[in-house]
Design a protein that fits this description.
about 210 residues; alpha/beta; 8 helices; 6 strands
Amino acid sequence: MHDFIWDLDGTLLNTYPAMVAAFQQAVRVLGGQVSADETYQLMRQHSVGMAERTLAERYGWDWQAIRAGYQQVEPTLQVAPNAFAGAEQVLAKVQAVGGHNYLMTHRGTSALTYLQRAHLTTYFTDFVTAAQPFPRKPDPAALNYLLTKHQVDRSQAVMVGDRNLDIDAGHNAKIAGYLFDVDHLITVTSHPELQVDQLTALLPRIK
């Protein structure tokens, strides 16, 4: 593959520890309780939205109350998330062979701040964040925007993410999908062309 579209949370940067802590705090403020393990599994296997709805249904809350608390707390805890081992090496090789890295994340413009703090920004050609009005993955609209804007050959492009919805988004955009499942937690339903638990395992696929 030559052109890589990357998810951010759980793929390039390990943002989950702060996300889990923020979610637990939001639930506690409302008078409930949820374990870190359950929170992490809901987020990794599904989404933050699924975690919000699961706890809201359990306690009879409005899920938006959980979201409001979570969104208030998470930025204060998410200061400088660490890049996963091998992230810079893989991004650099894509660039070295004349390929391009693109970001497609549901996170807002804070994603660019975190990439900068991890010293990864210079490896990217373009970014799509929640600041742009695209529907959420697995809808392919944001990927199609990047692929069309930069005239990417879809036969040499891939979406890399840590959840089934990332792979489904790639397939919906008629490109390949690589699943990064660092802790073997995902029940895979998306038929990725490659599944890895270390980012460096992607290096042989970069041409």
